[in-house]
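Key idea: predict the complex, not the pieces.
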Amino acid sequence: MSRQSSAGPPTAGLSSDLLLGPVSGTNTFEETVQRLLQTVRLGLIAPGERLPAERELAAQLGVSRDTLREAIASLAGAGYLISRRGRYGGTFVSNVLPAPPLLAEKNPTGASHPSITAAQIDDVLTLRDILEVGGARAAAGRVLSPPERELLWSSLEAAAAADADEYRRVDSRLHLYIGELAGSPSLVPLLADVRMRLNELLDAIPLLAPNIAHSNKQHEQIVIAILTGRPDAATDAMREHLSGTALLLRGFLE
Amino acid sequence: MSRQSSAGPPTAGLSSDLLLGPVSGTNTFEETVQRLLQTVRLGLIAPGERLPAERELAAQLGVSRDTLREAIASLAGAGYLISRRGRYGGTFVSNVLPAPPLLAEKNPTGASHPSITAAQIDDVLTLRDILEVGGARAAAGRVLSPPERELLWSSLEAAAAADADEYRRVDSRLHLYIGELAGSPSLVPLLADVRMRLNELLDAIPLLAPNIAHSNKQHEQIVIAILTGRPDAATDAMREHLSGTALLLRGFLE
DNA sequence: TTCAAAGGTATATACAGCGAACCATTCCCC
DNA sequence: GGGGAATGGTTCGCTGTATATACCTTTGAA
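Result:
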């Protein structure tokens, strides 16, 4: 091995991946847009509900009001948000959310609908498995406060009661809340992120009633396992639940 | 329930966490510094080895050469990097890395060494458990190419052969490579990040020889489980391995 | 001696984000 | 009906960050 100086293992194969990746280039503006989009797409604020006032929200996000306004304008243009002025006005989540862009951004070549590579699917599904299964397990291993238990159960019921067009959103909320119960604040944004990526994929395939019923049963198992403090059961239930979606996705997209 | 418009569950308790958090405010400069620091602290480029040339590295990172230079200068000032000019010069990782800052940034009050709250420790440890255990399991569930198997094994041997002062670095490398084998590119940066946070904590406690020996044995079990394709065994081995560190940390810091 | 490859320096430009003040609209309450 | 208050809408200028480009300096191998 032709190393150049002191001791240590060869660096091959790993360093490149971390060093080479382009720096995120995170505009404050872009990041703000993403945050708002998450809030809407993941159902954290339901259609018809109001966001905090601009000045207030800007302060909470640590962003100038100008930048926040640009982000809102951008999402309003896309049909996600609606602003109303005057007293008791504000910025509201659109009552009817726009159909998501369906990815596939039209290759100039006109190829049917790829731009979703198998590698991307694997990436999302694998990461989701790790985060959600681990999160469910951690949640089941903690002692939950009564309000937490109540909110968890009501999230479950909300998912069970939802009809097809709001299912994706309510489902996301439930999963996100489970992650929140894991007790690692840093986990939540990661979960939200992978959930967004997953939803983009799910938007490309039909949502069938039997699948929903099945999901609801599994949700119940997961929640009960968490509430009764059985990490292994929660792990298994979540893993099985996710594998259903994974199979569905791979079947339709690969 | 005093809702305002259409159907859906109450939003209480969850939305705040995602919406309210301040936007990262990521300077390109700061981010570049972090990337370089990771590369050094996690042992991706060993002491004495060379970084790519400035112009080249800047291109890879998607950053102007000026910004990259500022980052390098900053790290050179802190003793992590050394630049040499002229042909066959370049930027090198310092042969003797500076002792890490030991956190605790000196409260004006002069309090001994807190600024590490129990919540922070739990956050890091929980997240690490989720990511590393999940990653090891995923890695064990994949078929690995011969070069991958070889590199994994040699990383293990490097960790076993390391002496105390380079152990942290080589250990990080091994764990990171296991994560890379999980097959989810997005996982690696997350792992690197949590690993950095963990190392900051570990730097505050002594590193004992028996611990190292013990770790090495566990590493072997993990790697073998991965190489032989036994996800459950890999999961258990990794979980046990991490619990050792977790106990150690909680004992010293809480 | 020459040349190539690397770091070091200087300058001009673009624009993103911030802060602050002010305008316009709407609705409750008196 | 009128006043007040809370909200979004608009404007302007300042500051700092990042980029791009060109050129200089150092070093060591050929």
